[in-house]
Specification:
The complex is a heterodimer of chains A (646) and B (302).
Chain A lengths: L1 H18 L10 E6 L6 H11 L5 H14 L9 H4 L3 H6 L6 E6 L4 E6 L7 H9 L3 E7 L6 H12 L4 E7 L8 H15 L6 E6 L23 H7 L12 E3 L2 E3 L7 E5 L4 E3 L3 E4 L5 E8 L7 E3 L3 E6 L10 E3 L6 E12 L10 E6 L2 E14 L6 E2 L9 E14 L10 E5 L6 E10 L15 H6 L6 E6 L6 H14 L4 E5 H8 L7 H20 L3 E5 L5 H10 L5 E6 L3 H7 L4 H6 L21 E3 L4 H14 L15
Chain B lengths: L6 H20 L3 E4 L4 H14 L8 E4 L6 H14 L3 E4 L2 H5 L4 H4 L1 H20 L3 E3 L16 E4 L27 E4 L7 H11 L10 E8 L2 E4 L14 E6 L10 E4 L5 H9 L18 H7 L4
Parallel strand pairs in B: 1-2, 1-4, 2-3, 4-6
Antiparallel strand pairs in B: 5-6, 7-8, 7-9, 8-10, 9-10
Helix pairs in contact in B: 1-2, 2-7, 7-8
The chains are: A alpha/beta (646), B alpha/beta (302).
Chain lengths: 646, 302
Amino acid sequence: MAEAVTQLVSTTQTKIQTQDTPERLSRPTLRFLTCGSVDDGKSTLIGRLLYDQSLIFDDQLAALERDSKKHGTDGANIDFALLVDGLEAEREQGITIDVAYRYFTTPRRSFIVADTPGHEQYTRNMVTGASNADLAILLIDARKGLLTQTCRHATIVSLMGIRKIVLAVNKIDLVDFDEARFNEIVAAFMAFAAPLGFAHIQPIPLSARHGDNMSVPSTRMPWYQGPSLITYLEEVDVELDRSTEPFRMPVQWVNRPHLDFRGFSGTLASGSIKVGDGVTVAASGRASTIARIVTADGDQESAEAGQSVTLTLADEVDIARGDILCTPKDRPEVSDQFAAKLIWMSDDKLLPGRSYLLKSASRSVPVTVTELKYRLDVNTFSELAAKTLGLNEVGYCHLATTTPLAFDPYASNHTTGAFILIDRASNATVAAGLIAHGLRRATHIHRQGLAVGKADRARIKHQKPAVLWFTGLSGSGKSTIANLVESRLYAHNVHTILLDGDNIRHGLNKDLGFAEVDRVENIRRIGEVAKLMTEAGLIVLCSFISPFRADRDLARSLVDDGEFIEIFVDTPIEDCIARDPKGLYKKAIAGEIKNFTGIDQPYESPLTPELVLGKESAQQAAAKVIAKLIEGGFIDEIDNPDDWSI
Amino acid sequence: MKKPLPPHLRQLEAESIFIMREVVAEFERPVMLYSIGKDSSVMLHIAQKAFFPSKPPFPLLHVDTTWKFREMITFRDEAAQRVGMELLVHINQDGVRRGISPFASGSSVHTQVMKTEGLRQALDHWKFDAAFGGARRDEEKSRAKERVFSHRSASHAWDPRNQRPELWHLYNTRIRPGESMRVFPLSNWTELDVWDYIEAEEIPVVPLYFAKERPVVDRQGALIMVDDDRMPLAPGETPRMEKVRFRTLGCYPLTGAVRSEAGNLSEIIAEMRASHTSEREGRLIDHDESGSMEKKKREGYF
């Protein structure tokens, strides 16, 4: 070990002589991803890259020596893998379970390495690491050759739009530096990867542990004439010149220091612009020209992809965060329905019909998966029928947003073609999405401006439409209260409709059961019906257990702001079980009914309901609901509020 | 006009600007943790650029342990004045009352009470929902897996096993009431990038980074500068003058100096390239065991 340290120090010193060339400052940083199966030596490869570039400092080396004795798998030698496996639990398990980012600089270039795990259950981490990488190093153990995992990694790398890969045939020392074995593996991989459409594949035989072909060409493989790994990485050109693509800039922030300045701040996703160029707001189609390109270092005449700038326009145009500025000559698609690949990243399965939040560029909009076309088997490319997607599964689906979205296919623009899905209840990032194409142009389906509108219909009823959404456990008293409210409103000439299990489950939704997927669809349909009823100017009372927050939020998102009144009938489950008006709890507890809310299916309480009931009598509760309607201006004052006779 | 930045620094700067704008657009009460060091100087400089011609729409916050170098405090007040931003200073008064100090209480209790708890108090007091920090992923192993947007529970805890995946530059900024986000705009910068950028952009830094004759004593192999008369000296011990500088800045009793001749930026950069030790080596608080930074972070340390 002492020798290793001395050796490290001496190579460090020789390197410093040549370190100060300006070349390091002339190339853009290369961001790459390393992937490979569990024991292919990925962490060792990165550890070796850092070690050879003298980026392991003495104090880190001392920590490494300590750790190598404690957890190492390489006897007395330094276990390079320990240098890169960060978190304690991972070190103890001996596997990398997250994406770790590593940084190193050679005299010629700076590098950012995303180190991601190899196990199948960590596809999501690989996708994460690949999302910001320009190149991938795919490791293969020379003894084992092509494995299922290798194929899966290559597929994911290609899916994520990485165009160049290094096929690193590692542990070549363990097959006696055999050229025939190397050629055999390369040929097998080339055959497999042909349909994946990589622009360039660079095969390199190497030994990460012993340093062969890592920084300098190995003397032990005279048959290999290609570059060492470092030389290749230093020289590879990955600039898919985004500056020559059509101009796109998502507006991130509207910059208004005072009344005389209104600028639109953002990072150019693609293309270039100069003062005087025409620009269009993708979604609205409004146009103007660029007046100034403002930066803290002074105004610029032009800007190109990758730069963060602030633009001012010649005209007053309504632009907000989330808008995409584009060239008028080549505009993104605008649609509220599109097809996309989804990589599912959550333990909670995808539920078609559920409302998620989609974030793309600087825009967030509610979205539902309307149809899951198929699941992709990433090992074989085969398309499998699927009703849902689980963690690490890849699927192809149709999505619908509540408002039209401007986008490009992911293949042509990684910024305007990528999105994430966020669970609206837990706020977790549940999926990564790659847009394939729009399903119809929103401009073709501009809704007809109807002669008679919602407000007109409501006006002749002397009321404002609303959705009173009663949610709570079975037996909590929802329907009792809703019926009282409706009777009372009817008595005062208010136009209403009551939707509940009896009139919905037996008709419109009789094809649906009680599994989670069906419950989501059930509530979605009810939400749509409630929306139509509000269009008719009615006050709609909905009485449904509706156990999932996301589904109630979806129903809320369908109607106008302020129209949705969520009423949580918060009766403790013990009381509901004691009442058990239909004898359902008894059956559920006995196991005769499955998926019963509160027994074997969760109920997610509303976080910010407009009204919470449950402690008062049904009549008092109904009076509170009526008071809420009056307070919100939905109905006029009611005479004799205490008179409950009809 | 200044020389244009080299391409890799231009990329890093644009990325940091993007991150800062995202925070301002998506959070209600952001704050920038300003710790006076070189990384904070870079962060503050980029903030001026990100929102120009507006001023950065958030205040600066310094959690003062009362044991910072005096030159740091002077520099802090000048820096806030120079950029014209509001500077909030928080001192854990409870810790002061309890007489917590690096000497009396030991480094780990001092750090826990005056830094970690102090920070939590400040975030709770002003109800900030997002806080910028200058941490970089290359500093320490457990930082390598830190997200750019790092979610914290209502009790400021970090759960390394349950982090949100971070794809492209699509940051998930959603939090529940009471929760918060720590945001690290310099995640992808290295120590070398920071110094290259400071040189290229002529950013002022605390003079303690430059070598000068300073009074030091030797403590457990670390050169500790005697910055004021609170430093207890052993009988017969007298501080000696040595030409030293600091690679990182923190509480003076916990920050080791290095002997150096580097009196300007290019000498610092040259010296750093030749260095065999990482910058955190001078930090006494990291040495307990390798996992110690991760433990601190889970408890809410930056």
